[in-house]
Design a protein that fits this description.
Length: 118
């Protein structure tokens, strides 16, 4: 067997794996949704205030938490089991979404009560 006869091991093609495609689709739509929310919030603030300074403050408020949390997140990712950390992060994210839903449903309920009083 000479050097030209060597058989290279086949590497799996990730785009042929349905689980990987699902994960990439999820990541794509998650990132897209965050970008849509950021644009909508900025647009709404600018529409209400017509002040570029306040629009800049909104952008700053969106970035500051990232810079505050990133160093600790890096440490945690390096020292904790990845699976457990992922589960905790998803649970916290779900709790945040549930809190937002409860808050919005409370606002709708209060709005209906105020309309009934009139």
């Amino acid at each position: 067997m000479n050097a030209n006869d060597r058989v290279e091991p086949q590497t799996p093609a990730p785009l042929r794996n349905p689980a990987f495609l699902g994960l990439m689709g999820y990541r794509l739509f998650t990132i897209l949704s965050y970008q849509i929310v950021a644009v909508a919030v900025g647009w709404h603030v600018y529409e209400l205030t017509n002040d570029p300074w306040k629009l800049g403050l909104i952008g700053l408020a969106e970035v500051i938490p990232f810079f505050c949390v990133a160093p600790f997140a890096g440490y945690l990712v390096d020292h904790l089991p990845k699976r457990r950390l992922g589960i905790i992060a998803e649970d916290l994210d779900d709790d945040r979404h549930m809190g937002r839903q409860v808050e919005q449903s409370g606002k709708r309920r209060v709005g209906r009560l105020e309309n009934q009083r009139r």
